[in-house]
Design a protein that fits this description.
The complex is a heterodimer of chains A (974) and B (86).
Chain A (H helix, E strand, L loop, with lengths): L9 E10 L2 E7 L3 H7 L6 E2 L6 E2 L12 E4 L6 E5 L10 E4 L25 H5 L6 H13 L15 E12 L3 H12 L4 E4 L21 H14 L3 E4 L2 E7 L3 E6 L14 E12 L3 E3 L12 E3 H11 L6 E6 L3 H11 L3 E7 L12 E3 L2 E6 L6 E6 L2 E6 L2 E4 L3 E3 L12 E3 L4 E3 L8 E3 L9 H18 L32 E3 L4 E2 H9 L5 H8 L12 H12 L3 H4 L13 H4 L17 H6 L4 E4 L2 E4 L10 H14 L2 E4 L4 E6 L3 H8 L12 E7 L5 E11 L2 E6 L4 H15 L6 E4 L4 E7 L3 H8 L13 E6 L2 E6 L8 E7 L3 H14 L3 E2 L2 H11 L31 H4 L10 E8 L11 E4 L11 E9 L4 E9 L8 E6 L4 E8 L9 H4 L1
Parallel strand pairs in A: 1-7, 8-9, 8-13, 9-10, 13-26, 15-22, 16-17, 16-22, 17-18, 31-41
Antiparallel strand pairs in A: 1-2, 3-4, 5-6, 5-7, 11-12, 12-13, 14-23, 19-20, 20-21, 24-25, 27-28, 29-30, 31-37, 32-35, 32-36, 33-34, 34-35, 37-40, 38-39, 39-40, 42-45, 42-47, 43-44, 43-46, 44-45, 46-47
Helix pairs in contact in A: 4-5, 4-8, 6-7, 9-10, 9-11, 15-20, 18-19
Chain B lengths: L1 E4 L3 E4 L3 E6 L12 H9 L7 E8 L4 E8 L5 E6 L6
Antiparallel strand pairs in B: 1-2, 3-4, 4-5, 5-6
Classes of the chains: A alpha+beta (974), B mainly beta (86).
InterPro entries (chain B): SoxD (IPR006279), SoxD_sf (IPR038561)
Protein name (chain B): Heterotetrameric sarcosine oxidase delta subunit
Pfam families (chain B): SoxD
Chain lengths: 974, 86
């Protein structure tokens, strides 16, 4: 119900939303939880295992029960904590894990079987028969598992990621966090203040005690006014710091626009914050008590009830009982009474406790059990020897406070137990650069938190080398914290620990009895703390129950390992920006648009896009275009773009000496104006890459690499230059993106090149020659090299002129009866010639395997030389590169097929090699293949079976040399 | 993780390519034995404590030797491999 005249909601702005289709009236400033309470909706969720009806238990991100789904379809978000979701007009909220409705849930039948579903049930039950594991048990368990469901539709790509750096990161904005931020900010530090809630202030928004003569919210407002006016402070509300990582790095999830109707703003933003110093002022989480029937809707944390009454002006009923073991619980009774709610009883576990209020008071008493079905109706209370029933709608319970040490424990530090406060706190500097302050540091009075925040702020200021400017501390509440242990009440009926996963004290004792006595074993055996809330409210209580069951102290029992994230993080937020093109950006060549204009389908080559062929009208399949383009190159002239090749310049007096180290063959002897084919090995003796080396001048070389290996080769060259030969005087630079490059190939290539050069004579180059020339005044580099087997050139031009040169080349090629060719034709041309790509340089092949052993200089050392000579990498046992042609009526050859002796069985044991590249050769009117074959060079002329088990293709093939066309190279030299 | 490139300053790990232990800087000479080569290529210490690893800062092309702790993950020092003693 709504309480008049209380709360920080905006009563002038009513908001309507729906919960399971029912229209709910709320006000701006409400959460879904407070609005449901205002409308007397008590059952807000069903538990995971037994489908028990559950009500609101907390008022923050530790909420175990009120998990809901917001939105539908693409916008659906499951397992949203109703306590964290602010209401907005039109918000669509659905309850979870129930059918057909929250109050009538068929799944509740599980509860009747609960004696059979105790901890370890799965481990013991789903063991046999083995055949049922995948077909019966797994689908069954998967269907039953989980709370909210994914919609199955792709989520809107609506999240972002961001990075931030600061001197001081303050996590939490209660009295300690605000005072720490203020102290650091006044000293001039760059401060980020991150707060999980929609509003800054922490518990100050929920308590009625004054601070510095102001109400909590007023004081918070005054501090915020100062902080937000400072240029060195960034205040981030709705931002949960989710994890601590190395080097002062923190992950944080900002709920950017989930509190308002969907618009242009991102839904969430995942931050990576790098902080020199961090002050963890995340406060403490109140814990409940495990007693029979403690999961009845209406049983809630005492501090949460204060929050609902004071911050949102709502209450769960007309009367309430308060039960606790510290003085903070008494505040709940005081605030309830002042709000006009009947306080039916105050029970304090401490026998020596006193009270100031006018209500039935039972020091040393306890609650034995609860009554009610879909909501609390009454409690069985014991006081001394007397047992009696108290009729009430609500029980506010407090078993003490657990400092929020999660982030302090994320990179290995274990929290330590303090007997005086019956709780775990962080050790000193648990994360490098982190200080823990306030309630997170085990200080539970406001004045103490303010002073501790100031202390931590000054420590941070000094650590970063600034002068301290301590603000004055305001007067504030300073009640000493006196606690007696209150973990559980044993009795008839189930006492719940983990409300989300339905773990009871009996389950924990069963775990201990079955020798799962360490916290980590108990956790896995019972699933305690393995639900979305990660046991925020229940883990320490479960450890206390485990300690009692094993006869150990809580301190000796210890905790399970805290791991990020502190709250669930949607994958779409964590991976924001990394889908599709964000994952694999597109690299376009200078002539990309011109190729697309011609209707060329693009094929991915790493991140690059290359035209696969250039279809003419009337051509129905790619092969028609490809065959035509191959014939065109062989008969007249073709032009294709090769800008994706890696291009690296090596300059300096020692450049030649350096290239001798990285290439197997000698480059220092290359004459100026000449090009040489080069082979690079890895140090382990296998082939890394091949390419050409051109000497432009005495101290200037330009290398090409294959498209795929461009980055690897660049790294390798720099490694050798800087790490292995630091004494050599040279520089390397990648110019891949600076130069567009085009191959011109075919018998009429020279005519084409001459026709476009400013000085046609420059086009008269010997085979493997290079020169600098110009086209319309723009400097170009012309290389007389060939990857097609035809007389060929490559022309490089600064990238911004690339498209113009492409158009010019095409226009002239067409006049000579030629045109463009794509990657498919390029591949056919090189297979006809037996030239290599990374299908052959596959990371396992050696120069010997490829028949290039003659390129390994005996006169000098080079990378990979020693290990290429290992016995295992040479000789008859190696698979060597060969060419294949089908014999007889073969349908086709395929790449990746295996080779077997003619008449041998196609089994793994009989395997002789495999095919790497295949193509239909329109030039030779046959399929051609390249393959690795054991001792292949000695087997030319032999017949083999080629079997592709995957595609069910078989052919009889004949082995030959890799080069099938123009073996003498006369056409190329032309 | 962030590393400090001596050219460019503190940078995110995503700008670097890793290449394992700095022992690859101590390349055996041409006449080394097979055992020396096997050690160089394959055998690595797995220290609990300080380790020297190589990283390549892709944007500027500098190879650096990073000294870091495998226990605390603290990055202790970074210098160009040109200045690193093999």
């Amino acid at each position: 119900m709504r309480l008049e005249g209380r709360g920080q909601i905006d009563r002038d702005h009513p908001v309507r939303f729906t919960f399971d289709g029912r229209v709910i009236d709320a006000f701006r400033g409400d959460t879904v939880a407070s609005a449901l309470m205002a409308n007397d909706i008590r059952v807000v969720g069903r538990s995971f295992k037994y489908h028990r009806p559950r009500g609101l238990y907390s008022a923050g991100s530790d909420e175990p029960n009120a998990l809901v789904t917001t939105g539908r379809g693409r916008d659906a978000l499951p397992n949203v904590r109703a306590t964290m979701q602010e209401v907005w007009e039109g918000l669509d909220v659905t309850s979870q894990n129930r059918w057909p409705s929250l109050t009538r849930d068929v799944g509740a039948i599980n509860d009747l079987f609960s004696p059979f579903l105790a901890a370890g049930f799965y481990y013991k039950t789903f063991m046999w028969p083995r055949a049922f594991w995948e077909r019966v048990y797994e689908p069954l368990i998967r269907r039953a598992a989980g709370l909210g469901r994914l919609s199955g539709e792709a989520a809107r790509d609506a999240s972002e990621k961001a990075f931030a750096h600061c001197d001081v990161l303050v996590i939490g904005s209660g009295p300690a966090g605000l005072m720490a931020a203020l102290t650091a900010a006044r000293a001039g530090a760059d401060v980020i203040l991150a707060e999980e809630d929609s509003h800054m202030g922490g518990r100050l928004l929920s308590e009625t005690d004054t601070i510095g003569g102001l109400s909590g919210p007023q004081w918070v407002g005054s501090v915020l006014n100062e902080l937000t006016a400072l240029p060195n402070v960034r205040v981030m509300e709705r931002t949960t710091v989710t994890g601590a990582y190395d080097q002062g790095t923190y992950g944080a999830l900002e709920r950017v626009s989930l509190h308002r109707p969907p618009g242009r703003a991102p839904r969430e933003c995942f931050w990576r914050i790098a902080a020199t110093r961090t002050i963890l002022a995340a406060g403490a989480l109140e814990r409940g008590v495990a007693f029979p029937g403690n999961d009845r809707p209406g049983v809630m944390l005492a501090s949460a009830l204060r929050t609902y009454v004071n911050r949102w002006g709502v209450a769960p009923g007309q009367s309430a009982v308060v039960w606790g073991n510290t003085d903070t619980a008494h505040r709940t009774a005081r605030d309830l009474a002042s709000a006009g709610i009947h306080v039916a009883a105050v029970i304090d576990a401490r026998a020596d406790a006193t009270t100031t209020g006018d209500w039935p008071f039972y020091p040393g008493g306890e609650v034995l059990s609860t009554q009610g079905r879909l909501g609390l109706k009454g409690l069985q209370v014991r006081h001394g020897r007397r047992e009696f029933t108290v009729w009430t709608d609500c029980l506010a319970v407090s078993g003490g406070w657990n400092p929020s040490v999660h982030l302090a424990s994320h990179i290995g530090s274990r929290p330590v137990w303090r007997d005086d406060i019956q709780a775990f706190v962080a050790g000193p500097e648990p994360v490098p650069g982190m200080d823990v302050a306030g309630a997170a540091n085990g200080i539970f009075d406001t004045a103490g938190c303010l002073a501790d925040g100031l202390r931590a702020g000054n420590v941070a200021v000094q650590a970063i080398g600034l002068e301290t400017h301590s603000p004055d501390l305001p007067d504030a509440e300073a009640t000493p914290y006196a606690i007696t242990p209150l973990w559980e009440v044993e009795g008839k009926g189930r006492a719940w620990l983990d409300l989300q996963n339905d773990v009871t004290t009996k389950d924990v004792r069963l775990a201990a009895q079955e020798n799962f006595r360490s916290p980590e074993h108990m956790k896995r055996y019972t699933t305690q703390g393995m639900s979305p809330d990660q046991g925020k409210g229940s883990n320490v209580t479960a450890l206390a129950v485990l300690a009692a069951a094993t006869g150990a102290t809580v301190a000796a029992t210890g905790t399970t390992t805290y791991r990020p994230p502190f709250v669930p993080v949607t994958i779409s937020a964590m991976g924001a920006g990394a889908k599709g093109k964000g994952f694999a950006p597109e690299r376009f060549t200078p002539a990309h648009a011109a190729a697309v204009e011609l209707g060329a389908p693009m094929i991915e080559a790493g991140l690059w896009y290359r035209p696969s062929f250039f279809p003419l009208s009337g051509e129905r399949v790619w092969r028609e275009s490809c065959d035509r383009e191959v014939r065109m190159v062989r008969e007249s002239v073709g032009v294709t773009e090769v800008s994706t090749l890696g291009k690296i310049e090596v300059m300096g007096p020692d450049a030649g000496t350096f290239l001798d180290v990285v290439y197997t063959n000698t480059m220092s002897s290359l004459a100026v104006g000449k090009v040489r084919y080069g082979l690079m090995l890895r140090e382990d003796g296998h082939v890394m890459d091949d390419g050409t080396v051109a000497r432009l001048s005495e101290d200037r070389f330009v290398l090409t690499t294959t498209t795929a290996a461009a980055a690897e080769v660049m790294r390798h060259l720099d490694f050798v230059a800087q790490g292995l030969r630091p004494g050599l005087n040279l520089r390397t630079v990648s110019v891949t993106e600076q130069w567009a490059q085009f191959a011109v190939a075919g018998p009429r290539s020279e005519a084409l090149v001459r026709s476009i050069l400013d000085d046609p004579a420059a086009g008269v180059l010997p085979f493997m020659g290079c020169t600098e020339a110009s086209i319309s005044g723009t400097g170009v580099r012309v290389f007389r090299i060939s990857f097609s087997g035809e007389k060929g050139y490559e022309i490089a031009i600064p990238s911004d002129r690339g498209e113009a040169l492409w158009r010019l080349l095409l226009a002239h090629a067409r006049m000579l009866g030629g045109g463009p060719y794509g990657l498919e034709a390029l591949n056919v041309l090189r297979i006809e010639k037996g030239f290599l790509t990374h299908a052959e340089m596959n990371g396992r092949s050696t120069a010997f395997d490829l028949g290039l052993q003659g390129m390994m200089s005996a006169k000098k050392d080079f990378i990979g030389k020693a290990l290429a000579a290992r016995p295992g990498l040479l000789g008859e046992t190696r698979e060597q590169l060969v060419g294949l042609r089908p014999v007889g009526a073969a349908r086709m050859l395929t790449a990746g097929a295996y080779l077997f002796g003619e008449g041998a069985a196609a089994t793994r044991e009989a395997q002789q090699g495999f095919t790497t590249s295949v193509a239909w050769s329109p030039t030779l009117d046959t399929f051609l293949g390249l393959a690795f074959l054991v001792n292949g060079r000695a087997r030319h002329g032999e017949r083999l079976r080629m079997v592709d088990h995957m595609r069910n293709v078989e052919a009889l093939v004949e082995v030959g040399p890799p080069c099938a066309f123009d073996p003498d190279g006369g056409r190329m030299r032309g | 993780m962030r590393l400090t490139c001596p050219h460019c300053g503190e940078r995110d790990l995503r700008e670097f390519a890793a290449r394992g232990s700095a022992v690859v800087l101590s390349r055996p000479s041409a006449g080394a034995s097979a055992e020396e080569w096997a050690d160089y290529l394959h055998i690595r210490d797995n220290p609990a404590g300080e380790a020297r690893d190589l990283f390549y800062h892709t944007p500027c092309g500098l190879w650096i030797e990073v000294t870091r702790s495998t226990i605390t993950h603290a990055v202790i020092a970074a210098r160009p491999v040109r200045e690193a003693k093999p």
